[in-house]
Amino acid sequence: MNNRNIVLFIGGLTFGFGLAWGGMSKPEVVLSFLQLKDYGLVLLMGAATVTTFVAINIVPRFVKEPLLGGEFKPRTRTLNRNTIIGAIIFGLGWGLSGQCPGSALASLGIGNLPVLIGIAAMFAGSYAMGRFFG
Amino acid sequence: MFPLGIWPYIIGGLIIGVGVSFVYILTGIHSTQSSLFSTTMSYFSKIPYFQRKTYLDSREWRLYFAAGVILGAVIYTLTVSPDGWWTTSVQPWRLVIGGLLVGFGTRLSSGCTSGHGISGIASLSTTSLFAVITFILFGIISAQIVTFLGVVP
């Protein structure tokens, strides 16, 4: 296990702990946002985004490059039809099941074994996208 | 608006942000979630879509990251969770069909709630902003239809 993988593992531990703390490991909590009963998901995403904003936009002013090497580069993607069509399909599945990729992994961690079939389906859906539309 | 209070959400979000920031400051990597499904597929499928360089370069750390996410939630459950082990009452058919759509859609869109939502918006990417608005809007539409049809939870 090299240093980079250790960092990613620790980052993952933190991410999963935070998801569980914020309740998003439960599809029911995600659904309560999409059913417009509890707007907590906006607070969680907002708090996570503001913190990450500091790391991406402010920290590089004081630290020249990542401490283990590599480079600081904001995450950019080109906007095209697939970005939006994909987001529509993702949204429909998200609202149907209350699962997204990260929350499904954390859900497994709180003992929610049925989510394994959801994760398997996500692999299958990703495979179908790459196989037939990639 | 917040029947369970605001603090679990704010604290949870801050912890997530610290995890993502920790990885970024040390490695420059955007630790996002949904690419895991296609990068892992590169171990099994030889088709060019999955054998692209960015997938081969990131497939190993994505597995460590995903293992961390699962174990982080295990640690939460064993330490501070008020609930202990927990199981959803969302029906299996919804997990399967929803999972297929989530897997397909996030790959087509190149991002999910963490990639477009956290890292993308924190990078001030307008592409991600449009993606987030779109999937939240259609997530709400989808959840409303499900509720309207009398399916709970």
Please render the helix and strand layout as text:
The complex is a heterodimer of chains A (134) and B (153).
Chain A (H helix, E strand, L loop, with lengths): L2 H19 L5 H8 L5 H23 L18 H17 L3 H9 L5 H19 L1
Chain B lengths: L6 H21 L7 H7 L11 H27 L12 H18 L3 H10 L3 H23 L5
Helix pairs in contact in B: 2-3, 5-6
Short overview:
With 134 residues, chain A is mainly alpha-helical. Chain A contains 6 helices and no strands.
**Large-scale geometry of chain A:** globular
Low-confidence stretches of chain B: none
First and last CA, distance of chain A: 32 Å
The termini of chain B sit apart by: 18 Å
The total of beta strands of chain B comes to 0
H/E element string of chain B? HHHHHH
Q: State the helical fraction of chain B.
A: 55-70%
Number of helices of chain A: 6
Q: Main sheet of chain A, how many strands, which sense, barrel? A: none
- Based on DSSP secondary structure assignment, what is the total number of beta strands of chain A? 0
Question: Helix-strand pattern of chain A, N to C?
Answer: HHHHHH
The most extensive interface between chains reads: A-B, 119 and 123 residues
Mean pLDDT of chain B: 98
As a percent range, the share of strand residues of chain B is under 5%
Radius of gyration of chain A, CA atoms, in whole angstroms: 17 Å
Helix/strand-derived category of chain B reads: mainly alpha
